[in-house]
């Protein structure tokens, strides 16, 4: 075992791309997201990665919608760590992606570069990355640094060394997106080794997309990292079998952790590991 620290399980309950047609259990409304968050928390998740949708399922960056969802989740799961997405849907304007930071969430995602994303291009211009980083720093929001390939990790390390980003540092390796690094284990090992060579004091987690979700979660647990699961990244429990709920995906990771004697982080332990109040 690479670490004695408990494993943090993040649940990305909704995302911006998944549809109700492909995943009927996808939570869309604040009420549905609160219920899904409660189920995920009961199963063992301690962080909710939050995208919001309008009632018709359309991805949204409306501040009011984020506020409704956050209030509903807080009522359902007091103390839950809520990490909002600033990525939005591919093609969303930077201005709209920045707006939810006005709510001063505890954590928010910070995407570290531009990439091909399926048939689209996910644009994160260097000046916009600096704008996100600066706003998070002003609002005392801890960024989760979203890393889709090696160049993004090296860019993040540079910003950390320059003081643009300040600790605590948390890298999220998102692997398996068409256009980014695949979810092959060698890629995860490569990213972790580069992060360690930086000399930074950091924590890290992995989000495997599609078929990579389970194998990367298993290896992260063994390597001392943390895990993200949920419908944003994967809608299947196994090949051809749609998962019944986000909680079902969380519960499976909890069982894996227990099999290798790695404790699952409580909400309080998660706050301590991530440096949250």
Uncertain parts: none
Query: If helices are DSSP runs of H or I spanning 4 or more residues, what is the number of helices?
Result: 9
Corresponding CATH architecture: Alpha-Beta Barrel
At the first level of CATH, the class is: Alpha Beta
Please, what is the CATH homologous superfamily?
A: Aldolase class I
Largest sheet data: 8 strands, parallel, barrel
- Counted up, domains total 1
Distance between the termini: 28 Å
Bin the helical content: 25-40%
Strand content: 15-25%
Report the radius of gyration as a whole number of Å.
Answer: 17 Å
What is the CATH topology assignment?
TIM Barrel
Global outline? globular
Class per helix and strand makeup:
alpha/beta
Order of secondary-structure elements: EHEEEHEHEEEHEHEHEHEEEHH
Mean pLDDT: 95
What is the spatial order of strands in the main beta sheet? 1-2-5-6-9-10-11-12
List how many beta strands DSSP finds. 14
């Amino acid at each position: 075992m690479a670490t004695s620290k408990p494993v943090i399980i993040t649940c990305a309950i909704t995302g911006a791309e998944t549809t109700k047609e492909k995943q009927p259990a996808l939570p869309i409304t604040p009420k549905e997201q609160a219920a899904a968050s409660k189920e995920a928390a009961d199963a063992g998740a301690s962080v909710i990665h939050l995208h919001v949708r309008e009632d018709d399922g359309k991805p949204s960056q409306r501040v009011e919608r984020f506020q409704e969802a956050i209030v509903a989740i807080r009522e359902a799961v007091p103390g839950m760590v809520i990490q909002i997405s600033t990525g939005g849907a591919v093609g969303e304007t930077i201005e709209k992606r920045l707006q939810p930071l006005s709510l001063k969430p505890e954590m928010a995602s910070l995407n570290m570069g531009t990439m091909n994303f399926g048939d689209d291009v996910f644009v994160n211009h260097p000046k916009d990355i600096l704008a996100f980083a600066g706003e998070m720093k002003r609002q005392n929001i801890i960024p989760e640094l979203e890393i889709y390939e090696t160049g993004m990790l090296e860019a993040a390390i540079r910003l950390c060394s320059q003081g643009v980003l300040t600790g605590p540092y948390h890298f999220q390796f998102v692997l398996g997106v068409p256009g980014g690094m695949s979810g092959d284990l060698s890629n995860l090992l490569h990213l972790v080794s580069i992060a360690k060579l930086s000399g930074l004091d950091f924590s890290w987690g992995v989000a495997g997309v599609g078929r990579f979700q389970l194998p990367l979660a298993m290896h992260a647990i063994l390597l001392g990292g943390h895990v993200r699961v949920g419908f944003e990244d994967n809608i299947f429990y196994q090949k051809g079998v749609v998962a019944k709920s986000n909680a079902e995906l969380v519960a499976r990771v909890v069982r894996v952790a227990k099999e290798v004697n790695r404790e699952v982080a409580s909400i309080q332990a998660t706050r301590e590991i991530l440096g949250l109040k």
